[in-house]
TrEMBL record:
Protein name (Swiss-Prot/TrEMBL): 4-alpha-glucanotransferase
Catalytic reaction annotation: Transfers a segment of a (1->4)-alpha-D-glucan to a new position in an acceptor, which may be glucose or a (1->4)-alpha-D-glucan
An example Gene Ontology biological process: carbohydrate metabolic process
NCBIfam families (UniProt xref): malQ, PRK14508.1-1, PRK14508.1-3
């Protein structure tokens, strides 16, 4: 029987700390220590890629480049690239429980520029960058894209003043390479810093038996280096403007549907190359993470294509996706037993169910969804779970448990209390987590807000809205001994203890 396990969902940005946003520094290492102490096996995070309009990690300038906001200044000081005076008196934001993206975008850049200058002054800087660029492959294109984008006032690709740069005319690009050399070097070096710091943190986690579950959005942004350099892979015109965009029709989050705005893939072109770009993208994902959660898995069976003249996201139609052929190609190149989690939430029809069965990837179960149906018929309620699933109370797109419970009808609250066997005066979040960890799903993941018993205003994201999302941060003293003890207890009771720790104490039973 496959080992049962558990973990915690907590994005890097939500870690506590002094720099306005969570980083790869000491608080990240302390979080790994907490996971080891409570015998968890997994740390699940959101995409590590750059954030752009709306601050969403699901709208990135690159499918693979890292978010430089996560670079830790203390680690740069230890490496000799900064002095404490460079950052210790900087105002990174007044509210320690929220990320002020506008402020950190402004105040972090000059500090990183000092670190970049110090790095480039080293004798071996060019050699180190050359090695990194060869390993990364994508670095030069990304650095050029970001430098030119900044040159045009950070406008989206489609709005650049020089259409020759949009079209990547080589003589024009050569001019920009010369004129913007300092900015290009900045983006190369900061990606190097990101890579080095993340690799060290991941190694620390792995050495303690903690595996990282990463997140891969299905789509890329229209304002991205991929659309700039590989427009043939997307349904865009000669100016790289999307001819149609991605989203989904009306759902529980919005009567008008969700308008994501990402360009739709030209799937016929991907098929002609035997999905080479997807093989590359997933391979890059496995360089960063131990397991890869693929967002909106249904989009590979069939996807919602919204017309260019849309008024709402409902102005679209379902189109067939690449289906099993894509994952057959990926498995042929990367191996059959891939550690992939399929985000199979939302409208899941027979085509989507068949694709999940064909790939044999574990799907997701959301406890909050399951308890809405007081008849007990939802596929998201634990008595309908199967072992090959990953169970969550909710995800970054759902309410925290306390907010969710407050919005239930009286009938749903009574049903939830009975189903979870909630004890008198027991926090509803604890009752839900007990139920989750006791399920048959091979992996159970707790959202950090729920473990900390946080209120409704600590929600990470409200889909189909802009502003006030992706901001929540925990405080260092939020994680009390009693909360650690509760997590360790349910992990032990429901046989989800970290295999690494089980081997240490001689208990390696299933």
């Amino acid at each position: 029987m496959e080992k049962r396990a558990s973990g915690v969902l907590m994005h890097i940005s939500s870690l506590p700390g002094e720099f306005g946003i969570g980083t790869f520094g000491k608080e990240a290492y302390r979080f790994v220590d907490f996971l080891e102490e409570t015998e968890q096996t997994y740390w699940q995070i959101l995409p590590l890629t750059t954030t752009s309009y709306g601050d969403s990690p699901y709208q990135s300038f690159s499918a693979v480049a890292g978010n430089t906001h996560f670079i830790d200044f203390e680690l740069l000081e230890e490496a000799g690239f900064l002095e404490k005076a460079d950052y210790q008196h900087v105002d990174f934001g007044q509210d320690p429980e929220k990320v002020d993206y506008a402020r950190i975008f402004t105040v972090r850049r000059p500090i990183l520029e000092k670190a970049v200058a110090a790095f480039l002054a080293q004798e071996d800087a060019e050699l180190l960058l050359a090695i990194f660029e060869k390993e990364a492959g994508w670095l030069q294109d990304f650095a050029e894209f970001m430098a030119i984008k900044e040159h045009f006032g950070n406008k989206a690709l489609q709005e650049w003043d020089d259409k020759a740069a949009v079209r990547r005319e080589e003589n024009v690009l050569d001019d920009y390479r010369q004129k913007l050399r300092a900015a290009i070097d900045y983006h190369k070096v900061t990606q190097y810093f990101f890579s080095q710091q993340w690799a060290a943190l991941k190694t620390y986690a792995n050495d303690k038996g903690i595996k990282i579950i990463g997140d891969m959005p299905i789509y890329v942004s229209a304002d991205s280096v991929e659309v700039w350099t590989m427009p043939e892979l997307f349904k865009v015109n000669s100016d790289k403007e999307p001819l149609c965009v991605a989203g989904c029709p009306a759902d529980e989050f919005s009567a008008d549907g969700q308008l994501w705005g990402n360009p739709i893939y030209a799937w016929d072109k991907h098929e002609e190359t035997n999905f080479t770009w997807w093989v590359y993208r997933i391979r890059e994902g496995f360089k960063l993470y131990d397991l890869l959660r693929i967002d909106h898995f249904k989009g590979f069976s069939d996807y919602w294509e919204i017309r260019g003249d849309y008024e709402t996201a409902n102005d679209g139609e379902w189109k067939p996706g690449p289906g099993r052929a894509l994952f057959d190609a990926v498995k042929a190149n990367l191996g059959d037993d891939l550690p992939i989690i399929a985000e199979n939430l939302g409208y899941i029809d027979e085509r989507a169910k068949q694709l999940l069965e064909d790939t044999a990837f574990p799907g997701m179960k959301i406890l909050e969804f399951g308890l809405l149906d007081t008849r007990g018929k939802s596929t998201d309620i634990p008595h309908h779970y199967i072992p090959n699933t990953i169970a969550y109370t909710g995800t970054h797109d759902n309410e925290v448990i306390n907010g969710w419970y407050e919005n239930l009808t009286p009938e749903q609250q009574v049903y939830t209390d009975i189903y979870t066997r909630r004890q008198a005066d027991e926090p509803i979040a604890q009752a839900m987590l007990r139920l989750l960890y006791g399920s048959v799903s091979k992996i159970a993941i707790s959202c950090m807000q729920d473990l900390l018993d946080k209120s409704a205003d600590c929600r990470m994201n409200v889909p189909n809205t802009l502003g006030n999302n992706w901001q929540w941060r925990m405080l260092a003293d939020d994680l009390t001994d009693d909360k650690k003890a509760f997590l360790a207890e349910i992990t032990s009771i429901y046989n989800r203890r970290n295999t690494n720790n089980q081997k240490k104490d001689g208990n390696d039973e299933n």
